[in-house]
Structures are given as structure tokens and as C-alpha cells.
## 1
Amino acid sequence: MGRHSLPDGSAPAITGSRTPARRRTLVLATGLALAVVAGSVVALRSGLLPFGGPCDGNSTRLDVAAAPDIAPALEAVARTARDGAIRTDGKCLDVQITARAAHDLADAFGQRPADPEFQVWIPDSSLWAERVGAERGTPLTTAGTIASSPIVLGAVPTAATSLGWPARTYRWAELTRAATSSGTLRMGMADPARSATGLLALARTSAAGGKEGDDADTRTAAAAKLLHQRVADGDRGVTATLPKDDSGAARDNPSRNRALLLSEQAAYAHNTESGSGPSLDLFYPRDGAARLDYPYVLVDDEEMRPEQTRAANRFMTLLGEAAGQRILRAHGFRDGNGGADARVIRTAGGRAPQPSAAGPADPPTVRELQALMGMWTITVQSTRLTTVVDASASMGAPVPGQGGRTRMQLARNSLLQTLATCTTDDDFGLWKFATFLDGPRDYAEVAPTGRLGDRDTSGATHRDALTAALDSLTPEARSGAGLYDTTLAAYEKARTTYASGKFNALVLVTDSANEDAGSIGLDGLVARLTELADPKRPVPLIALALGPDADTSALQRIVAPTGGSAHRVDDPSQLHRVLLKAIITAGAKGPR
């Protein structure tokens, strides 16, 4: 990441957030800049642009929606333009700034309003505009970036010292692990569902964890559970959770965070605000910081009047000029390329060797963000899982390369891993199936789906009962797989016991095709599941096909009406990872 301040005589380079969008952004920005220059020359020659002259009340209004953190700086630039009688088309430039949370406007723009209230939108991250684009909402054109701010970990002095500040530097995974492993540090963050800061921090945690082995998803989910306990709506909300003073009572208050994942600019604002409490010291991950990039977005520009387009161009130029950049730096922002002067860094809480010289990390894709939000949703929202496990004789077959362990043993171990990631508020249940397992029925409910923290009359928890039930799973000798009748019965039960406010799902684990000739049949099962499925009360069916004999094509037909998915798992020891990814994907599809 660049650390040089912007020379007063330079405008920030117009940048985009990723390649092919970057090329489009550069072309658009270049065209806008040339249009502004050409228009200015014509206006000067015709006497229509008297800089500093008085306004006569004849003005061109430009309505700009901006993220709340940058809105004060933009208002200062707009006020300077009004006071200085800056003009466009011979009329005074009247820019009205409205602070609006980016997630609220992203929701509104995603629905294609017929007459947008704003001509320009400056959210805190390009992620919001990309989300609108992915939803085919209001047409948006990103003309450049006007500012940026890296995402860091800020800590009150005593907590920073315990983490080795300023001398010790961390990678993202190390930093998150160090901050969440201490029961006394108490780290907070902005809600990823409502904040680009929180979402980008979660994305970096996930990406960094992915380089450390196969259990990255599990570690990310575990970190998300801890972080969710202390989330706030946004950066300003999360800084309000810090201690109000340096007293021991404030420091030891369990409701107060001592460390935060936040933007450098939010730390700058906190450290310069009177009466905000102890200043923050900052850690900058050395393997590349995520950053807010504050794009300058034209809203449905093809429908804008020509004078509005020129006013939008003029205001963007003012933000890029030396005076505009000085105002942005005075509010704690870096330029669009990430450059900042030493005063901004020092005031925000950075000291050598913080920040590191690492460049910004690649931003996550829309698909990666959807998966992350699915994981966040099912991690922080209580989950209701009913797991249906094949107990036919074939599950006793040893798996090559696994030291003689059977499919059932490996599947059982993976399900125990899944159970370990659940909280006491999650619901979990277990069924098993094999032909004629319980008289004429092919299935049996081993443990009802219930809250893991609930206790029975002996004081044992439902989690204890589930653990014992999973440990006891063994294949039934000389039996086949009664797949279709079992699936229908389990899905009917999951639908009738649906729990609102939780992520409900049915998980089916099998290594066989249906072997009950007297069952409902595939066509009948699919038709019945189509009748039962309710998008307003979704229960996705997730089918995990173990080994080469599982009927994957039939499973794909079975899961389709429920909004679920089918997955072949050649190595049963990896069932837990595949299941977690399937749940994350299903969670991303769920209603908001």
C-alpha cells in the first residue's frame, strides 16, 4: 500500500476496483475529465465561468447520496464550491449532500426505482455498486474513486500493548486468531450484513485462513461466531462500544470492546473526537489490507439531463483537485490510490512498523461475497439441521487409503465435527435408514431434532445425546437403502416442525441407490416434494453421495424442488467440508 501523501498540485488517479471493470472505469473517467476540461475552456472564453464571482441565485442542483463517514468531508467541499461561486454551464454549482447508509441504498437501487432521487452515489465501497449490478437493478456507472481507507485492527492502549504494539506485526489470520483467542480482549466489528468494513474484514479473514489448510471454513465460521457476539451496525456504532475512559471499571466492563476491526478513517475520527475515550493504536496486517474505496457512481446517467451530467463531472473534478483532497485528508481519508501523509496515519494510531508496506489485497468477487454472507447468516443465525444417515450394509465397506476405516466411520466422524461447530441454541436431530429397519418402515428417528443446550431429566444435554447417537451408528447387516420413503418422511417432519428465525435444512447422507422396490418411486417423491416446498419457509435438502454406487442423478432430481443441492463425496473424511460449503451456499439463497 502506498504511503506517500498526495502533492498539493496533483489530482488522484481515477481507479477502479478490479479488472475488466477497471478498464471501463478508466475509459469513463478519462471521457468525463476531457469533457470537463473542454467545457471549462469554452466557458472561460465566453465569460460564463467567473471563479469567485457572486451567485445571482441561478444555480444547477446536484443531489449526492454519500456514506455517512465521508458525507461531512463532501459537504465541506460542496460548501466551498457554493461560497466560492464555482459554476457549471454559467450557473452556480449547488451540491446537496445526503448521508445514507450504503446497504440501504443498495437495497433501493437493486429494485430499479423509476426516478432516482440522487444523480450521484458515493458509498464506502464498490462492493455495493457491484451488488446492485449483480441484481440487475438501477443502472450505475462508476466514474472513479475519490478516497480510500484501509481496514485495520484498532485497540485501546492496554490491549494494544498486550498484542505487542507497535513492534509486532501480524498476518490477517494471526491477527484475528490473537484477537479472538483472548477472553479479556473483547473484539468488536461492524455487521457484515450492513457494513462494507465488516464484510471486507470477514473476507480477508476467510481468504487468509484458506491458505492455512483444509479446515479454513471451520475456522472462519468459528471466528464469525465469536465476532457476531459483539457486532454493531457500522464503524461509528462500533467505536461507541469502546471504554469511555481509562479507569479499571471501564476497562473491565464486559459490555465494552477493547479492540475493533474498523477503517483507518474511523480510527482517525475517534482519536480526534473530544470525549470519545482512550485513543486507538492500529495494527495493519502485513499480508495486504482490505480497503474501502469510495467510488464516484453516476446513477442511471443515461436518464440524467445534460446539465446534471456536467454538474456531476464538475463536482468530481473539485474532489480530485488539491483543495478537495486537502479537505478529504483533514477528515482522515487517503487518496483513491491509497496514499496518505504521515499526519493521517499518526493521528489514526499508526506507528512504525505499522503500517506495513504491503499493497492492498485483491477485493473479493460478488460470488465470494455471496458465499461469505451465506456462511455469516447460518453461523450467526441459529440453525436447525436434521441429518438422515444411510445405515445399509454397504456403509460398512472400507475406504481405500483410510487405514481400514469404513464409510460409516468416516461419515460419523465428519458429522461429529459438524456437531462441534454448532452452538447451544442450534437444533440438531438424527435419523438412520435401511430397508425394513423398523418393521415395514425403512427409517427410524434416533434422536429428535431439538435445541443442543436443552437438558433431560438426568441433566445431560441434547448435544450429549446426539454425540452418543452418532457414536452408536453402525451398518445394518444384509440390508439395502430405503432411500425414497425415508426422504419423504424426513422432509414432511422437517416441514411440520419448521422453526421460524432459524436456518432449517435436511441433510441426507447415502452411498447407495434406492433399494426398496415397494417405495413411493422417484417420480412420486419428486412430485410430493414439489408440493411440500415453500419458498417462504425454506427447508433445503442437501444430499451427500458417498462413493461410486450412490445414485447422484436421482439425488439431483430429489433436491431440486427444495432449493437444495447434491454433492458427490469421493472421500468420506471430507464430508464435513462439503457439508459446510453446501450449507453456506443454501444460506446465501435464503430470504433476507
## 2
Amino acid sequence: MAGGDRPEDEAYAERGVRAAPALGGEERRRLLDGAHHDPHALLGAHPVRGGVLFRTLRPYARSVTVTAAGLRARLRAEGDGLFSGVLPLREIPDYRLLVSYEDAELELHDPYRFLPALGPFDLHLIGEGRHEELWRALGARPMTHQGVSGTRFTVWAPNALGVRLTGDFSYWDGTALPMRSLGGSGVWELFLPGVGEGALYKFEITRPDGGRTLRADPMARRTECPPATASVVHASHHRWGDGAWMARRKGGRVHELPFSVYEVHLPSWRPGLTYRQLAQQLPAYVADLGFTHVELMPVAEHPFGGSWGYQVTGFYAPTARLGTPDDFKYLVDALHQAGIGVLVDWVPAHFPKDDWALAEFDGRPLYEPADPLRAAHPDWGTLEFDYGRTEVRNFLVANAVYWCEEFHIDGLRVDAVASMLYLDYSREPGQWTPNAHGGRENLDAVAFLQEMNATVYRRCPGVVTIAEESTAWDGVTRATHHTGPSGFGGLGFGLKWNMGWMHDSLGYLAHEPVHRKHHHHEMTFSMVYAYSENYVLPISHDEVVHGKRSLVSKMPGDWWQRRADHRAYLGFMWAHPGKQLLFMGQEFAQGAEWSEAHGPDWWLLDPSYSAEPDHRGVRDLVRDLNRVYAATPALWQRDTSPEGFSWVEGDAREDNVFAFLRFDAEGSPLLAISNFSPVVRHEYRIGVPDAVPMWREVLNTDDRRYGGSGVANSEPLKAEATGWHGRPASVLPVLPPLATIWLRPA
């Protein structure tokens, strides 16, 4: 008899309760070991001959009583936390369980009285690998089911013998909460009444070998803050205020619009700021500098901050280091309302081996290939995805859609595409297996990327996908249905990082001016292939870490010369065909490499610092570059068309001079001239179209406001009828030292 119970209460409680048939030994063992595929068949309420059988699994409980209208019946203890009994009822009532513990008594709904909360159509789409809104089917979803509030938990674990739910709501003991397998889908489900937003949870998976592993939810939309690893039940309550932005986005043609990107590592841009605090500072800063977009280094949850987010464990959850998913939405909303697009780095190439995350998730390779040689990523100690498995491909394709639809992200920059495309990437002979045709191409990865791009562009008009692809793969930005010379359809990306331009141009600038004539081709070669893809010109975080030095520190000479080269290079870059990307800190010529521990050296812009004008001048230049760029269609309207560019002087290697024309859709030109030598070149004749009688200087990186020497073309330049550079007319500008100038029709 329970302590404190009166004999008459006990007699009342057990009146009419018959002993339930005992569970078979094997069924009982599997249930208690967390290895049963259908616990709902054993637990809950079931009609039997002579009444209704109730059975529940409540470890540590002293008693369990079934309560309903006009009913209060105590179940019989079976041992091992099992309580059962047969009540003489005609039908299953709307009942609850009154569970008594040593120091508490809880009244709750029985999770095992509910039908599955996931329908057959969802399971069909999951099986087909075509569930484009997978996050609505899998994971933790607060909902009302059969009139009761709670959370539906679902997880894909096809190799598991059993799955149990555990969390702070069960004192992290999953014994009482086994989940059911839904047919042959590999999906396990449990609706848990009374559990809602903010609850912590994981899945306890019984592996094929009988061992157990405790796993975070691959589909979790919110996580604990690292180093804690639990998943968090989440429902969004953010109300978007960016309707005007989203409406404009649908009709945008990225290739024919201004597109200059400020790359940001959110945790270190202003260390210590949350998403909401960043929303008060970042949009204003970026808008003031005139960038059209920010690109955020990966924001998906990752356990090791030093990975900068490129080793993801929570693909559906913004990192909790800076706040909640709704807080991140607040930041995106604020950027949109400031007129700034948001790109995020997305990492479908690999994932870390943490034993609480995706690696051998249900006891066998699941998200990764079964072949260890195929699974191990040779460069980063991580695992590659199995792109040939429909459910894995679905997980990733839906994830791309998720960020664009749920968080209003305007573009995905896909990391490490080259490592996905080649079976022999960073592998020696004998360490990789050819494809079905004997080649080195990863055909499954190609199909995945094509499907991802096609799906994103179909579902999310105005969104752009960008490939970080460092090889000469044919057709990265070609439509997926257009077959190229290699026999493959295009990958379907909107843009591609131009890694060749980046390496060549930075290599040229690293030489002393006197030696640059021997490397002149490194600055012109990019135009040989400039229209083979739709390019972004990236000066990214990868170029200013790990001993590569910051952008200004790559330049030779003294401090003045390095800053002058830095400014001239930015002027050349902004005029070159392609979109622009600049990593934070480079906009004010930070001299030190970036470190995620402390971020940009903002103190360089402190007015009390003696060299502050030098750094402020570079930032002022970046602002003016973006301002003039946005106002000059010649610099972006025909960015992907050869008709939008023409060399004027591409072979002045002895002078370190480059000159070219850009044209807008109406044929209106901009003339860009770069002088990468430290001498002033007076009356340097440049051929121009005869249709423009006068030219005026609209930007000069040598302007004193930027920290330059002030050599300028202050008066309009009159075109002379002297043919030059194969053109009918010419002008005689002065070329400042280590500088780029832009001229437009006066």
C-alpha cells in the first residue's frame, strides 16, 4: 500500500481492474531494451475481450492510475516500471494517467493513446527523396494533435533496432518514451503531450549491434549553445517586416544588377554582440559603405568555433551562440529593411565526426557512404555526404530551400564545390574508386547539385546560388538542361567565385613594381575566360588568414606604397567584369590577419590613433567605389556579356598600365585606367571611342581624401582626333602613381 493512501482508496482504485495478459518474454525484453519497433502496440489502451487493456511504462513510479469521467482505476504493477490492467469498459475513454512518485504526483496524457501525427503522404515524399519541405515533417514540431497540445518528434533512422526520446522532460531517461517505426520508411515518431517550446531533447538510438547511442536531432531548428549539444523544441513567432524587399526580389535579375558583397563572420565582426544587437549596427554600417549584400560565413550550428562554421552539426539551426532562430530572423529582416541582401555560406560538402551528431547516426553509415575511403574527407578530418542516397540528398536539398524560405535568405554561397565534384579530390592513386564510366567525376554529387539548384530557383524566385569552385569544371553556371562539351548538363549555379582571377591578380600585386612587367599577363589572363561562367571576384576570409597576410600587407614597399597599391587594386577590381566581394577589415586596410578570436581591428579607426586618417581614407574610397559603381550601369548591366567589355591597353607591360572600357546596355562607356607603377605618367595617350567628345574623372584612388598624393585630372579631358590603340580618337590623362582612375563621358 502506498504511503499515505487509505485502505478504502486502494479498494476503490482496484475495483474492477483485472490482471492484463503478461507480455511475452521477447516483447518485454525488446520494449525495456529500447529495441521495439512498435511500442504503441504494447502500451496505451487497446480493446480486448471483456474490456479495455491499459499498459504504461513509468520507471520509478510508485503507482499509476487511469482517470476519466466517472473512472478512477489503479493499474497493477508488472515490475520494471510496467503497470497494466484490464477495465470492464465498452470503449476506450478520453483518459489520463495519474502517476505517483516518491515526492510528486503528475496527471498527464498518455503518449501511447495517439495515432501517428505524420501522414502517409509525407512518408511517401520522404521515401521518394522529394519532400521539399522536409523540416515540416521531421524533427520536433509543436502542434495540437487529437485536440491535445504537445510536440511531435520524428527522426529518420532506418538501421535502428529502436529509438527512444529523451530530454529534460524525462530527466534524460528515455526508458518511458520509446518511439514507433512508421512502416518501411525508416522514420520513427512519437507525439508527446504537454511538451512545448524550449524543451531540450535527444534521440536514444539502439544500434543494430544492440548498443545505444545518444544523438542530437539532425533536423533540429534550434540547439543548445555549444559546447552543450542538446536539441531544442522551437516554433517561430517572428513577424517579418521586409515585404517590400521580398516583392522586389522576385523580379530581380542578379546578373544585370549591382552586386557588391561585404563578407562577415558574425561572431567576430563586433565580438560579444547578439543577433539583435548586430541588427542595430551591421545594417547601418553596410548601407553607409554602399554594399548591396552581406555574405555571412556559415551560421548553421557547429561545435567548434575555430572551424568558423564550416563543420556543421545542426544544418537546420542558426548557431545559438548569438541568440535564437527568431533573433537571426530579426537580423535578416533589419538588413532587408536597410536595402541589403543577405547571402549565407552553405556547407553540403562534409560534416564532422562527433559521436552525438550525424556520423554513423543509427549505428551504421547513414548520411555518409558505407565505403570508408569514399566517406572520409581527406583535407578536414570530416565525412562526406552520400549524395547517391535519396533521403540524404533530400535532407540537403530541403535544407537549401529551408534557409531561403524560412529565413528569407537571398543567396547561398556553396562551400567547397570542387571537393564534391571529383572522386580523386586530394586523394592519391588507390585511394579512390572511379565512377561507372571509369572517370573521376562524382556523378551523384553532380546530380545533387543540379537538383539543389533547380529546386531553389523554382521555389525561390530572385534567390541566387554561388559556387566556390576552384577548378575548370565545365558549366558551373550553365543551366542544368544544357549539355556542354564534357557531356554533362550545367550545374545550374547563378554565379561562381573566380579563384583564378584572385590568385593571379594577388600574385601580380605581390611583386615589386619594377618586376611586375614580367607578370603582366597575370592581370590580363582573366579576360580570356571571363565569360565562360558568371563570376564573383572574391577577396575572402581565406585570403587573409593562416600566414597569407591581410590585403594591404600583401603589397610591397613602404606603408604609403602598400596603401596606394591596396586602393589601386580595389579600383581595378570594382571596374573588372564580375561581382565584387570584400572581407571585413579589408575595407579600412587592416594590417593584421583576421582572427576569429577578436575580429577586425576597429581601433585603427579611432580618431585618437595617429594613423587613423590612413585607414579612414581607404574606407572612404570603398564607399565611393560602391556609390559610383551603383550609379554606373556600364559596370554591371552587361557583366556577363562580352559586348560589355573592351581592352584599350592590355599590353603596356613596361609601364605597368592597364586600360579598358565597360559599356552599359545603351553603349554608354566607362574608361578604367590602372597605373601599377610608383611614377606619375603625364599625358599618357589612351585611345577612346570617337562618339564621346569629353571625358571627366569620376573616381581616382590617388585622391588626397583617400590618403593619396592628389595627382588628378581636375578638368574634363577633350578627345583628340588622333587615333590610338586602334581607336579613332584619344585623350591625354595624367596617371597618378599606384592608382586607378575612372573616366566617364562629360
## 3
Amino acid sequence: MGTELVRGQNHPLPRTRLEILISAEVPVLAAAALGDEGGRVPDGDRIAHPGAAAPPGVEVPRAAAAAHRLAVDLGALPEAVHRVTVLLAMPEQPGADPRFGAIAAPRATVTDADGSEIARFTLTGLDAESAVVALELYRRQGGWKVRAVGQGYADGLPALLADLGLPRPREIAEAMWEAERPGEPEAVVPEARPAGGGPVDYTHPGRQASTADAASGEPPRPVAGDAAGWSMEERLYNQVWGMFEDLARATAAFRSATDFAAARLDRELDEVLADPRARIGGAGDAARQAAQAKHDELVGRAQAAHDRDLAQLMAEAEVVEPALPPAYAQWSSPVWQGHRMPTEPPQAVRLGDLHLPESALLRIPMLVRLPLERGLWVDSGATPADFADSVDRRRQALEVAVALAARLLAVHPVGEFALEVVDPAGAGAGPLGALTRTGALTGPPATGAAGVAQALEELTRRVDLVRMAISGGATEALPDGFDTARRLLIVNDFPQGFDDRALTRLRFLADEGPAAGVHLLLVADRADAEAYGPLLDPLWRSLMRLTPSPDDHFADPWVGHAWTFEPALPPPGSAVVQQVLGAVSAARIKGK
């Protein structure tokens, strides 16, 4: 997958032959403007738009459509061109609301000529704007970069063109609309997953739909691993996050449509009530019924589109879930039965599942890349939606940590991952028993203030030593017998047993440990650390918060949905974690 850009962010372009894929909920006009070093466009001949002769190096679609493919050859552009501005505009149509705030956020994806994704940008935060600059391709120090812009114009295309420095922008805008020929929309390209207003396209760039699919007119049947990637694991990883993005945008489209329908209904009812003559009698009732009917019709269409997209995603999930490798799979998956230690570490691991209220039955695996770039925090504090008492909540949080630690240990090659535990009061003996009984830990859990200090001191020295070796480019100079295995430190009941020196070392491990192969898994209730005030705020912010019970605290970067997270736990009464840890222990003994 390419880099997900946010507004204002840039990214280098490794190729000169590119395609820019535009996906929107409704047909939009796509065009490209060729500007000088300052971004100014001297005349209308430098605008590539439907119906006009294409300037060198740029090809644009022939008509307004919900999905576009713009071809750009940076090497063929005139030397005077230093910036290519990709712009979108909403056509004014009877009965339509010509503003980007009324539809799901459009998306722009930059790929190379072979279809490999380079960068993508979702144009969120638009409201009354009917024209927007999506992306800029610009020269920089002999190369080219892409910048995510997302600058909208409530006054439409003329205002956008005027901002580019074009003379007579209104005349040029009118010419662009006149040249735009109505016709069949261009086919949705496989790499651009459409927004929630249309069906989700599961077609992989390298796989054609079967004859049966084409004859029936149905969407291609989902196939596990049907995404870009060099290995099946990478393809499954990309497919899972593609499903996540599809669900995010389908839900955004549904919510946008229902919000718009409700706002329009309120406005029309207000207009009826504003006329005293319409408040009573048949005319007023008819106006209210007509407004309600339009609202219900729009919501019904949105619901039907959402149901269709959800059904396709459910079908994809049904074939993807059974195909996931252990690092990505549920604990109930058959892949854990007879588990064998891998020879290569995985590229990601499953922390749990994510879902939205409109699609509670569809669970999307939450995968994070390995090695972990951030520490993890399993929140053992109470939440308004959780009625478990404090003891149960703390036990559940530690069980989540143990299950995750067991998974990480099991999916790494023998000797490449190790576990350490700090449990100052010994309160986690029950859940931690699965680790201690199987010999999964490097040593017994550290207890008491002295044990905490010693464990943190040893890990701090380890991180310092590895950092010096890496910065000096002399990793081979590490001491003989140095254990190069990555470490996961589980800290239970933080901050109990921690003094100021221990806190300083813990913050150091959270910040510097991941780069040196030391990762932190904190099991804590933030309320227990209130006495430290804002001192620990940087620590909490540096960690990824997980919860032992469902909680809607994850927000996606595309449309900002609040996703409900559920941890990856074994089925009730299952001994799968114990069995897997036993297999890990046996493989370790055999390898000695």
C-alpha cells in the first residue's frame, strides 16, 4: 500500500509515468492545470480538460464521472511547467446539491504506470465548496513530488481558476463545462475502490473477472489474497486494510446522505411553518408529507447502497478470515492447531477487531506492522459502558496482554522474540501463569521496588548499547553472546512499585526502546497515576491504547469514524493459548 497523505503533506515520486485515480460518490469533472514555477497558469491552453486538446504529458477523462484515470508523463512536460494541479468540480444539475460537503469525501490515488500505489489522499473537511484542488505534482531539486492540497472553493470553478492566475476565469470555466460531453461514465478502475455510493469493486489488477461473473452482471466473487503484494501474507494484509477503507467510506457515504436528508427535511419543514397560512389546512399537511416522502426516499436509497456494499464486504470477510496466517488469525482459527514455529517473522500482527455501529456483524481485523513502532497500553480502568468491578477489569486487561504476548512469541522464529514481566505486587499471578508454567519468560516476573528497578536498569543498558552500535554502524561489535532477540516488557499494575528514577527509565524505554528492539506493553489504570499530574502525559500519548472490553476509541485517518475495538482473545474455556505456548517451549528446547 502507498503512503496515506494528510492535507499539506508531500511525498517523493519515484517514477515519471504516473496515473492519478479519482473516486467520488457522484460524477465530477476532473482536470489538470500546468503552471510555472510560481504555480501560475498563463492561459486556458494550459488546462487539460474534457473536450480540449491535451497538452503534452497529460491526459484527462472525456466526461464527468464518479471514477477517473488521469495519465501524467512528467518527462514529456514542457520545461516551463513546474507544477501540475489536479482539480475537481461538481456539475450543477437539477435536483442535485453541487457541493462536496453533501457527498462522501472523494479520494485521489497516485500510482505508477504498472498500477503500484505510491500515495493516496482522502479530501475530508469539505462543506460548501463545489470546486477543489486535490493534488499538486511539482518539481523540487531535480525531482518531482506530490502534495496533498484539498483546497476548496465555495464560489466554484471560476474562483479556483482565478486563484491559479488565469485571465478571464469565468469564461474559461464556462468553456470547460460546455466542452464536457455527457456520456457513459468511465469504468471504475480496479485500483480505485469507489466510495459508498456505488458497489465495491473487488477486482484485482492482475485478475480478470470470471466468465460467469461477467455473464451474470454480478460483482466478481471475492478471493482471499486478491490484492497487491509480493507474498500471500502481504496480499492478505493489503486486502484487510482495503476492506477497512471500503467500510469507512461506505459508512461515510451513508451517514452523509442521511444527515443531508435530515437537514433538508428540517429546512423544508421550517419553510412550511414560516408561512402562517400553511400551518393549518390541507396545503400545510401536503407540504409536510411531501418533505417527509423526499426524506424517506433519499434515506432508503442510501440504506440500499450501504446494504449492498456491506453484503459484498461480508462476502469478502467470509473468504479472507479462514485464509489468514497465525499472526493475523483469530484464536479460534484452525491454523493454531498443530502450530509450528515460523522461519521468518511476520510483517504484522492482529491486536483485535474493529467495527462500526451500522455494521456490527462485520469485524475487520486490526493489524499493526511489526516491529512495533509504539508501545501498547491495555487500559484496566473502568469505562461508562463497562460494568465489571475493578478486580475483574484488571484481570481481563492482563489476560489481553498475555494473549497478545503469546501471539507475538508464537509468530516469531525460535530465539528471535523474548518476554519479560514486571509485576511489583505479584497481583497478576493468575493470568501470568500461562507464561510462567510454559517457560515463556526469560526469568521469573520482577516483583517489589527492587525488582522493578533492576529489570528497568538492565533493559535501559541494553537499549543504550544497541543504540550506540547502530549509530556507530558497528552492530557486529556487540559483545559475544549478546542476545539479539527482541524484547517485550509487560508491566502490570503500573505505576505501583515505581519511583521517580524508575519512571524516567520507563519513559526512556517507551521512546527509545522500539528502535533498539525493546517494546513496552503496559497494563494500567490511568487513574492510579493521577498523583503524578501531567508528568506522565507524554507517556500515555506515546502508547497505543487497547481495552479489554469493546470500546469506540479508535478514529481512522480518512473520515474520522469512531471505531469500536475488541481485543483478540481465545474463546471462553479454550486452552489454545496454553497449547501454543507449549509448542513454543518445545520448539525452543529442541533448538538448543
